[in-house]
Amino acid sequence: MKRNRIFSQALGILLGCTIGLLNLLFIDVERSSTLKLQQLTEEHEFAFEVEAINSLDSTTFIVRGPDDDGILADMTVALTMRGCSIIAVAARKLEDGSIEDKFTVVDKRTKTRLEDDDLAEVSKLLLTSIGESPHLLKAQFEDQNKVLQARVRHLEDELFRRRLTIRPTKKG
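^ thats the sequence. predicted structure below, dont judge the formating
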């Protein structure tokens, strides 16, 4: 009875795991994984959108947004500095006046597509490289940094003043 019970339990676990893994046979490995990010600006609710698509041998980034001077160059520099080799670029202007730039890249070292885990990082890098937003953000942080530095100096002076006790000599 004990052997039959143990054998039945082991058979049940094996059968359950096999049935649970059957769905892996139906996964389409040719299908690409897609990631979309959007940049929020004051002028447009979502000015730029980045779509990252991993295929078997390369990664494609599609950037859609308003047509501004230097965007293509900014994105090219960002991808190159990140360690991507650009193997194809396609830029087109859409009917509404916006642009759609498509970059097909591979990792510079391995000559293969980017890892799925890196898609979000590179997409964010592309968004921050577009237009003036990183420069404005940097300028805002520099202003905040100056204010914080002044505040720290004031607090250090105040702390020093409170720790310092000066007793003048008594006359008489």
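Residues 133-163 form the longest helix (31 residues).
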